[in-house]
Amino acid sequence: QIEAMRNPKSSLSSTIKYSTIYEYLKIEAANQNELNKKRKKIRDKAKIILQDWKNKGFIKGYKEVKEGKTYAKITILL
Q: Which letter, b or e, does each residue of 8-45 get, where b requires 16 or more Cβ atoms within 10 Å of its Cβ?
């Protein structure tokens, strides 16, 4: 998706909702605490990947966006 965002003619948003990632990965847990731990692990891994891509020059950076107390989305800086 990020590769498609980089295309100047693309109409894709540079923001990715974490809820979309969770749905795509079909994250499930027995209780809310476990679900929160799994979601945090996914966010942490996403940031590791994005930081690597930033270091390699694939993207300029990224920014996590909170809605209330929850990290809701990540904006890719191209």
A: eeeeeebebebeebbeeeeeeeeeeeeeeeebeeebee
- The pLDDT tens digits for 43-59 are 999 999 999 999 999 99
Rounded-to-integer distance, Cα 48 and Cα 3, Å: 17
6, 32, 64, 65 from 50: Cα distances, Å: 14, 27, 11, 15
DSSP character for 69? Answer: T
Query: What pTM value is reported for the model?
Result: 0.84
pLDDT digits (tens, 9 = 90+) for 23-38: 999 999 999 999 999 9
CA 76 and chain centroid, separation = 8
